[in-house]
Design brief:
Low-confidence stretches: none
Number of strands: 4
Shape: flat
Structural class: alpha+beta
Strand content: 35-45%
Radius of gyration: 16 Å
Helix content: 25-40%
Largest sheet: 4 strands, antiparallel
Distance between the termini: 45 Å
Oligomer: single chain
CATH class: Alpha Beta
Mean pLDDT: 90
Number of domains: 1
Length: about 90
């Protein structure tokens, strides 16, 4: 699916970005499928180099999560937070 097709099929309702120090940007979006009326979270890593000769655009890293109801988001958020809490605890021990 090309970028034009993607933009025609999905309506971005909420967007956010996180840019680490390197040439990459995490892009977060809540999207509505215009044909089905369903929602999904799209979290993708994009290459954003300063050098115009290098590739700029989406990488293969990321995921799309279909949303059926508010509980889907609450459960996923809880699991992600639990995971990062474990990572922080692990790093503190070293």
């Amino acid at each position: 699916m090309s970028k034009i097709d993607w933009n025609n099929k999905f309506n971005k309702l909420i967007t956010s970005e996180y840019k680490p120090v390197d040439d990459r940007t995490w892009k977060f979006s809540l999207e509505e499928d215009k044909n089905k009326g369903t929602l999904q979270c799209n979290i993708r890593l994009f290459n954003t180099p300063k050098d115009p000769e290098k590739y700029s655009g989406p990488s293969k890293s990321g995921f799309i999560m279909k949303i059926n109801d508010i509980d889907d988001i609450k459960k996923f958020k809880n699991e992600i937070n639990n995971f990062f809490d474990k990572v922080l605890d692990f790093l503190k021990e070293e």
